Amino acid sequence: MKETVVSGIRPTGKLHLGNYFGAIASFIRMQNDYNCFFFIADIHSLTTHPVPKDLHSSVKQVLAEYIALGLDPNKCTLFVQSDVPQVTELYTYMNMNAYKGELERSVTFKEKVKSQPDNVNAGLLTYPVLMAADILIHRAQKVPVGKDQKQHLEMTRQFGNRFNRMYNVDYFPEPEAFSYNEELVKVPGLTGGGKMSKSNSEADAIFIADSQETNQKKIMRAKTDSGPIEKNQNKPQEIQNLFDLMKLVCSKKIIDQYENDYNNCEIKYGELKKALAIDMEIFLKPHREKISEILQNYKLIAEVAEIGAEKAKASANKTISEVREIIGFRKFY
Ligand code: ADP
Ligand code: TRP
Fold first, then answer.
1. Which of 76, 149, 176, 179 most suits a substitution to test ligand 2, by most atoms within 8 Å of the C-beta?
2. Domain boundaries, the chain
3. What's the CATH number for 4-185+298-327?
4. Active site includes 198?
5. Which of 50, 65, 293, 297 could disulfide-pair with 55, CB 3.0 to 4.6 Å?
6. Could you tell me if the CB of 143 is within 6 A of ligand 2?
7. Band (201; pLDDT cuts 50, 70, 90)
8. Whose CA is nearest to atom 18 of ligand 1?
9. What is residue 172's three-state secondary structure?
10. Residue 102 above 90 pLDDT?
């Protein structure tokens, strides 16, 4: 039997290159070999209190992008999280065995406490529990995500194992974080910091649906230094980031050429950026065109969401009724 795969992305606007190479590229490959459930985590996104109009358009955007980038509703189950309320039922049950101390130790929670001290809501604290419910509701074995989600996956295993121990069952499998490219991916941003993220400044991320002009400008403005002064010296972070981005879209020949120039202290960053922008556009153009085509097709988007919801609900219902039985919510005879 095929192994089950679950993954989701919060709808907060357009998808960027980090989302693509960290998650979606794996989704696309996995749909051929696994029993896949890919969803839009719209309940998770409520922690930031989006206005309804924006929430709806973000869900539509991400669903269109999923389809345009190559997720095939005939091969995998594509759905919107809030269409499958069983997940929130499982979340309620899992919350009873998730402890304040461990939730407070989550790195993403600690970051949010720092970055948005006025909105430290219970949904943020229990975010890993809802994520665990997303995964456990389909009893998944594999979860394609970027490197930043590793700790959440460990927590999912913890909650699943705890449930198994508590009720003395072998019910939930241990899901593992997974990347089709062997190692978990981290795509760097353009502003010299860590991973590309939509929560960083607007200049940090390359959004797949954005115009050539916008993305080219961002690349040309990416942070660099004044250049190497010694042969073969180590690259500072922001320069390494540009090389890492090149690895995603440029040929080996071009990368080798700029590596050589760097090592010989002959590099011209302007030229490197131009080469990166050209190959980035070659990669992005067909995706961008497909996204705008699908976004026009409201009927297709609605149909995909409806079929996906039915398939996801069938799988979730099975788990929920078995969990209810295990917990002791039973019918009277
Ligand atoms: P963001 O950081 O922009 O808010 P999300 O947290 O919504 O992105 O990420 C959605 C998915 O994309 C997750 O699986 C995450 O691991 C992956 N992802 C996001 N940014 C990157 C990145 N820079 N490198 C690799 N994977 C990433
Ligand atoms: N936490 C993930 C993120 O921020 C999104 C997510 C929610 C998810 N539920 C999930 C990812 C279940 C994989 C599986 O990117």
1. 149
2. 4-185+298-327, 202-292
3. 3.40.50.620
4. yes
5. 50
6. yes
7. confident
8. 19
9. coil
10. yes
